[in-house]
Amino acid sequence: MGSSGAERAAERLLLAALCSVCQALQDGMLFPTESPSREVKDVSGLWIFRADESPERSRGFEQQWYKSPLAETGPVIDMPVPSSYNDITQDAQIRDFIGWVWYEKDVWVPARWIQDRGTRIVLRVGSAHYYSVLWVNGVKVTEHVGGHLPFEADISGVLRQTSGNQCRITIAVNNTLTLETLPPGTIQYMTDRSRYPAGYFVQNTNFDFFNYAGIHRPVLLYTTPKAHIDDITVETTFSDNIGLVSFNVSVLGSSKAAVKVTLSAQDGRCVASADGSRGVLKVTDVNLWWPYLMHENPAYLYSMEVQATAEDGQTDVYTLPVGIRTVKVTSTQFLINNKPFYFHGVNKHEDADIRGKGFDWPLVVKDFNLMKWMGANSFRTSHYPYAEEILQMADRHGIVIIDECPGVGIKDIRSFGNVSLAHHLTFMEELVRRDKNHPSVVMWSVANEPASEMPPAGFYFKELVSHTRSLDSSRPVTYITASNYARDLGAPYVDVICVNSYFSWYQDPGHTELIGLQLNTQFDNWYGKYQKPIIQSEYGADAVPGLHSDPPMMFTEEYQKTVLQNYHNVFDQKRKEFVIGELIWNFADFMTSQSIIRVVGNKKGIFTRQRQPKAGAFLLRERYWRIANETGVRMDCLSSGSALYTCGRNTDLFLTL
Asked: In this protein, which residues make up the domain named Glycosyl hydrolases family 2 sugar binding (predicted)?
């Protein structure tokens, strides 16, 4: 991979993809669901895979591997989808591979889909990291820049141009990070020939998690009528017992489609309906969407059915879950449904053994059970958007989400340039477009720990926050900072101050007696300057499971617990004033790149990577349930000892403290 050639090629690909994405953003990105007019076929599973190990990583394009079956181009291996490819094999070169990898799968498309020319056939990739090009039967159908978000293409024409029902899907994925990508990175070429062979390079990053790559979420084929519902936007509010649901429906393929919208309660009763693509539904005796532990009936979801009937009588049907709730920020509070909400939750990662960042339902359900067991009511999607299925789970269980884009590791001044800003703005457009209708999402986060003291940061974040607000005025906007309060140039533009600090860990390691003074000073400084509510968005300490010491020493479970206790003492003082939340770093141990400060990954989890609790998990469980009892719904069903708590229709049974 020659330095100048690779960098120029990456820049050209990024600019071309940005142009194509800007065009694509005119369309919606509804989650594929089945209905009387729509079918979904999951084509995930076992694919074949080949890494392009040529020096320039370009042989696959030069030899047009997409033109013929991948197995004919050279050696291939099996690769599960969804998963990261890094930990699937025993090959360290695959684990650490940077560059283009190729996936392929042959699938059968139902004959009726192809024969009915009134049917649209769409191929959708839930996410692939980082840059992707997609072919069907050797024909390029789309490309996408950015991991963690879906992309799709109408492949009806391609399939109908070829004989038979077979569909060969080829996806090339490149995980190279540059100064203009999100997250950014640099390729460093080692030129000392006494130490490195010719062409040797490494991928440098400024974030502390493993750069997992591959096709991370399901690959789907789905159908719609030619005249179809392309997008739905919902915003909600209420007054007394009346709920209001504003809707905007976009229909493509018909200029005169008749649209009907029906809102139903959980028992199937129609509670409101309207004709037309825009309007407001009025719901009497509304059931609001409440967070977990804030109400005896949390996470109430209505069902909104949208029907669009074209001039030829063909009807498309799409059903969207709707939670009616409001979000508001004051100088000292975060209000959900006009009631103060205190974030007592976690930061997470999409990360697990073997599968890496690959979507996995058992892991998702286990994580939600653990969060509810410990009394967590919220989490941040650190440091990138999570799978849509995770947000749907949060909607159903009342877990509140701070939805974050992958703006992590923006440390180089060159990453504040116009190309980076354009990509960042586009990414926020894609993120808002995907997640705007989730009631669990209460705030957008546009970055994590950027170098916000650098001179270009003020303009960069002013534009970024302003643009995000223009996309969605119903939610506050923030970013997570670790900068000095007096020199942070982006903080004036956010609605909520989110601060990361690791007193007695990265600062004054071993000295837990300093946490109280330093944390109090931190909070007073930030609030004194900005008069905005504050969330402690990260805090914690590494704990190697099973490592013990008394008195506590760093890396032991006792030390992690002591750090948490000292932070909690200050939180309990400041949450009476202007601190509105605390999110532990991290929910579970996770993989990182290899370094002398990481022993097979980051150990700041309160659970191990295998989801087993450390001592800190029990400490947080006791704390979070105590806070819930102080600030949430009156829990008459909660008693001491081993009583079972069953509050709300979505809540599993848990032993209380």
From this structure: 41-225
Q: Is a pLDDT exceeding 60 seen at residue 601?
A: yes
Tokens of 220: 């789907």
What do you get for the CA distance between the two ends of the chain, in Å? Answer: 57
* Contact indicator for 339, 328 with CB cutoff of 8 Å: no
Contact by Cβ (8 Å): 645, 632: no
Q: Check: CB of residue 85 under 8 Å from CB of residue 101.
A: yes
CA atoms within 13 A on the CB side of 515: 26
Cα separation of 246 and 278, whole Å? 8
pLDDT above 90 (res 453) = yes
> Tens digits of per-residue pLDDT, 554-589?
999 999 999 999 999 999 999 999 999 999 999 999
Judge residue 71's burial from the number of C-beta atoms within 10 Å of its C-beta, 0-12 exposed, 13-18 middle, 19 or more buried: exposed
Which pLDDT does position 633 carry in this prediction? 61
For residue 35, the SS3 value is strand
630: helix, coil or strand? helix
d(CA 45, CA 68): 21
Mean pLDDT score, 587-612: 95
Q: Is the pLDDT of residue 649 over 90?
A: no
Residues facing residue 507 across a β-bridge? 503
Query: In whole angstroms, how large is the CA radius of gyration of the chain?
Result: 25
Lowest pLDDT segment from 85-94, 106-115, 287-296, 630-639: 630-639
> How far is residue 612's CA from residue 527's CA, in Å, rounded to a whole number?
37
Query: Cα separation of 56 and 558, whole Å?
Result: 49
Q: CA-based diameter of the chain, in Å? A: 78
Catalytic positions, please? 449
Would you say 152 and 142 are in contact if contact means Cβ atoms under 8 Å apart?
A: yes
Q: DSSP string of 93-159? A: HHHT--SEEEEEEEEEPPHHHHH-TTEEEEEEES-EESEEEEEETTEEEEEEE-SSS-EEEE-HHHH
Q: pTM (2 decimals)?
A: 0.92
Contacts (Cβ under 8 Å, ≥6 apart) of 387? 126, 127, 216, 217, 350, 359, 364
**β 151-154/201-205 pair status:** unpaired
Neighbouring residues of 547: CB distance < 8 A, sequence distance ≥ 6? 555, 556, 557
Give CA–CA dist 590/607, Å, rounded: 10
Do residues 446 and 428 make contact, with C-beta atoms less than 8 angstroms apart?
yes
Q: For residue 452, how far is the Cα from the chain centroid? A: 22
| CA 538 to each of CA 343, 448, 480, 553: distance values in angstroms, whole numbers, following the listed order | 12, 10, 9, 21
Instruction: Reply yes or no on whether the pLDDT at 342 is more than 50.
Output: yes
Averaged pLDDT for residues 592-604: 92
Please report which residue ranges of 322-407 form alpha helices under DSSP H: 361-373, 388-397
Q: How far is CA 601 from CA 291, 346, 350, 367, in A?
A: 32, 18, 14, 19
- For the chain, helix, strand, coil in percent to 5 are 25, 30, 45
What is the C-alpha to C-alpha distance for residues 237 and 281, in angstroms, rounded to an integer? 11
Instruction: Give tens-digit pLDDT for 250-272.
Output: 999 999 999 999 999 999 999 99
**Stretch (H or E) spanning 626:** helix 615-631
